[in-house]
Amino acid sequence: MRGIVFIMFFAIGGIVGAQFPGFTSQYEQRLDGAIEELRTIITRFDEDAAEQNLTRQQALETYDRASDEFLVKQGSSMRQIFTRFDKLTTHQETLQNANIAEQAMGFVQYFDPELAQATWAQYDVSVPLNPEGGLFAFLGGVAAWFAALCGWTVARLPFRRRNRVRISS
Questions:
Q1: What transmembrane ranges does the database entry give (predicted)?
Q2: CA nearest 115: which of 53, 13, 41, 25?
Q3: Phi, psi of 77, deg, nearest 5
Q4: Is there a contact between 92 and 32 (Cβ–Cβ < 8 Å)?
Q5: Which of 125, 90, 148 is nearest to 20 (CA)?
Q6: pLDDT exceeding 90 applies to what percent of the chain?
Q7: Buried-most residue among 40, 121, 131, 152 (CB within 10 A)?
Q8: CA distance linking residue 34 with residue 85, whole number of Å
């Protein structure tokens, strides 16, 4: 019975692990689209500022000095756009210039929940039949097998036999 449970955990973990390359590929496509959209917004902002003979920073300071709460919030929103753009472009560079191990680490390091959620909403589960898919299937299987082993060990703790040492006098 125990062997069947471990095999099931390994298989399920393998299927889950094999999703990583496909998911990250779709995630990168969404990342590229998000960066392009933010770049369009930033370019328009910079062009509008330049038409008024303002730098980006001066234009943002104009928002800050505005007496209208709406304009102040718009300035704050633009700052968030600039920050998000910088974060996403760094993430994109990390993923583009990396081997598979570096991609996995970069994905975790710069993980963007908003993009991941949108990717997952459109993601179709598949099992890739390539070396990357095989590697992540194996790693997922090993991780699930190890989790099952830990769970099995912890579940058995209350039932294990204890050898008592008797000291004879």
A1: 135-159
A2: 25
A3: -65, -40
A4: yes
A5: 125
A6: 37
A7: 152
A8: 8
Query: What mean pLDDT value characterizes the chain?
Result: 84
Query: Residues, the chain, total?
Result: 169
- The model's pTM: 0.67
What amino acid is encoded at 52 in this protein? Answer: Q
Pick the closest to residue 85 from 43, 46, 35, 47 (CA basis). 35
Backbone angles phi, psi at 129, to 5 degrees: -105, 55
Task: With beta carbons less than 8 A apart as the criterion, state whether 52 and 59 touch.
Answer: yes
User: Do the Cβ atoms of 133 and 127 come closer than 8 Å?
Assistant: yes
28-32, 35-39, 129-133: least confidently modelled range: 129-133
What gap in Å lies between CA 58 and CA 54, rounded to an integer? Answer: 6
108: helix, strand or coil: helix
Chain centroid offset of residue 169 CA = 64
User: Where on the phi/psi map is residue 53: left (φ > 0), alpha (ψ -120 to 50), or beta?
Assistant: left
- Token duo for residue 120: 């997952």
